[in-house]
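Researcher: I need the complex structure. Ligand is adenosine-5'-triphosphate. Inputs:
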Amino acid sequence: MHSALEHLLVPIRREETVIGVLLLESRESGRYTEDKLEFLSRLMDHASIAIANARLYAEVQEANKAKSDFVSFVAHELKNPMTSIRGFSDLLAQGVVGPVNENQANFLATIRSNVERMATLVTDLADVSRIEAGRLSLDFAAVEIGLVVDEVIRSLSRQIEDKKQVLDLQLPAGLPSVWGDKIRLIQVVTNLISNAYKYSPPEGRITVRAEAADNIWGEGSPRVIHLAVSDTGYGISPENQKKIFEKFYRSDDQKVRDAPGTGLGLNITKQLIELQGGKIWFESEFRVGTTFHIIVPIVETA
Ligand SMILES: Nc1ncnc2c1ncn2[C@@H]1O[C@H](COP(=O)(O)OP(=O)(O)OP(=O)(O)O)[C@@H](O)[C@H]1O
Ligand SMILES: [Mg+2]
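Model: Output:
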């Protein structure tokens, strides 16, 4: 004959509310002793925290997705008006609708550079929210790092020349290709070189070096391309060094503040490099200069 089942219900409480119950069944009577009950109640305290965290996490995910959708929508909607502002200010500047005096030309150049900044900010915000929602897809292929650097230099060389800075490129020929997303690598290198340019005084020196190397910097691919961007700029103080990869972080150093920026560049850069199986780090000395290093996996040959 079966002995009667003995049941025990333990409430799972979160503050004053019962968010669940634990049901225990035993064929033997008298098993639920005082010390076991106490153990179960402690166990359920942990369970309640875990359940509450899981629920909060799900809510945060949901909110993150909504935020990402919203930011993508706004970014998309802002593109058309910005293209229009850019196009019409260019037409005005070219004198298409009448001669432009020097003052007007200067104003138009200011409009142009500000709309340019807005466009960058909008794409950066869209990138951050896409990365955070885990919805950034990368387009992997074999990429020549030399071509990446060429492309970046092409778009930044004028500014660098205008500031009379010296650009020293040390890229050996015949470097093996990396496995990554070319557009995103261009974005990464653009941010590093534009930081070196922005946060160095006129006549400073920017050095870009690349080498194929054994990965002595940690886990991941055994062979990597190591790229380093050095400047002779304002440097980063030890207390600020902890924060530079944070979203929207900009140093309160007046020399840094004089250059435009939103503090999103390095946050995006770090995430993009890590999504490609790489790593980023730096060393810096205040008022002496800074070097940023990245490594990216080399394409494996069978
Ligand atoms: N090469 C550098 N030398 C000195 N400080 C730097 C350098 N690179 C980055 N920093 C510091 O780190 C901060 C964050 O850099 P990050 O590239 O993320 O943002 P930003 O350049 O200010 O803006 P943007 O979003 O346009 O890139 C900078 O504002 C600056 O204080
Ligand atoms: Mg930057």
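Model: Summary of the prediction. The pocket of magnesium ion (ligand 2) is lined by residues 191, 194-195, 261, 265 (CB under 6 Å).
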